[in-house]
Amino acid sequence: MRMARRMRSSRSPDALSSNKLVVLGHLARNGPSSAGEVAAAEGQRPQSLTRVFAELEESGLIVRTRDERDRRQAVLTITRAGGEALRRDLDERDAWLAGALGGLGETEREVLRLAARLMERLAE
User: What is the distance between the alpha carbons of residues 12 and 97, in angstroms, rounded to a whole number?
Assistant: First the structure.
């Protein structure tokens, strides 16, 4: 939790919210998805993300189209601008993390690599 707070505090003032990044990240990794699919994958209810979806669409970071199979449902797709916004955020966090890791020794970095793999397995 402290690490997440530290990374968030180092972000630029105009950075996207965590929920917006979650949505963009999901769409970038998994491709076009319904609101329900995004919410379920992230452990949230679609209603909780309604405003996030609307703001991302209004900003041109995602587009919403009708599902060809079920016309009642919308499909969310990340736009080029959305991908660029996500990349900028990731680059910013990567730069901070690289600076923080620069003070560690090789053994310490290897321990972190192992821990990251274990955490990834636990998250799945």
Answer: 15
CA distance readout (Å), 103 to 1, 5, 106: 21, 20, 10
User: Contact at 8 Å (CB) between 81 and 60?
Assistant: yes
pTM summary value: 0.80
- Please report which confidence band the pLDDT of residue 123 belongs to, taking 50, 70 and 90 as the band edges: confident
Strand partners of residue 63: 77
**What are all long-range contacts of 1-8, with beta carbons under 8 Å and residues at least 24 apart?**
7/93, 7/96, 7/97
pLDDT in tens, 54-76: 999 999 999 999 877 777 788 99
Domains and CATH numbers, the chain: 2-123 (1.10.10.10)
